[in-house]
Amino acid sequence: MKRTTADRSLAAVAVLAVLALASCQPSPPQALGTVEWERITVPAPVAEPVLALEVREGQRVAAGDLLLRLDQTRQNARLEALRSQARRAREQLAELRAGPRSETIAQARARRDAARARLAEAEAQYRRAQSLTGRQLVSRADLDRARAARDGARAELEQAGQALLELEHGPRAEHLAQAEAALAAAEAEVTDQEALLAKLSPVAPRAGLVDSLPYKAGDQAPVGAPLAVLLVGEAPHARVYLPAALRARVAVGDRALVRVEGREEVYEGRLLMIRSQPSFTPYYALAGDDAERLSYLAEIQLGTEAATLPAGLPAQAEFPR
């Protein structure tokens, strides 16, 4: 049987309808984002000028490689001052532990003997004044002066004797403890300054790629500013945003397939993290179609086969059931 023109027209319309229906079928939801590497920064410990850069952007470095050098003039001077203070505290403690010199003790003993002799003379003068006063040969005022001189000589002898005992007994335990604490504080400041000085020649904390060197030779970065930014790790991760329709279907640990712009390969990874709070919330309502506007930040760890991917490439992630 021959097909008429009308039959052929109806068949063409049916094919077009099928194709139109197929094109209207919703595509599987995808998570869009970018390829990222783990980033670490090397902050500026002090505000000192950059003397020289030892690496360049894009260079691979090993852990411990020197990245740059900061001016150490001012910090070196402070270190020497702190070391001098520590030496002074150390010598003061050694002096206390050694105790007084024998010559100093001999001088104190001589002062005590001299005070004892003056007391003997003062007592003799007082007794003589008493005798003369009884016979009314001297006045009462002279007797009072002799008594005061005797009492003063006794006080001088007591003072000299106590000073000699103090020297013979040596320093008190409390004074030694104070000197030891002062020395410990001075040495701690020296250690802290030495650690700070070592940071003026920052090195790579981990092996990686130098992504950025914000400051050049001659620049002076403020304290805490990043002197270098490194990309580290064995493989990158895809940082994507999960639409609301996809968020309820995936969980941490799920397998993911990631396509990267400019690469034909499909990279397999595992979902590492999903933020509980959405990254975008419409201001009007979260009901019906509006809820589909929500997106959740997630990270997908890729394998070592993706180690050559640069950071920042657009990525698309699918999660096969």
TrEMBL record:
Keyword Magnesium applies: no
Compartments where found: Cell envelope
Signal peptide range: 1-31
Domain of life: Bacteria
Gene Ontology CC, one term: cell envelope
Keywords from the UniProt entry: Coiled coil, Signal
Stored PROSITE patterns: PROKAR_LIPOPROTEIN
Domain YbhG-like alpha-helical hairpin: 76-194
InterPro entries named among the record's database cross-references: HH_YbhG-like (IPR059052), UPF0194_transport (IPR050465)
Coiled coil: 72-196
Protein name from the UniProt record: Biotin/lipoyl-binding protein
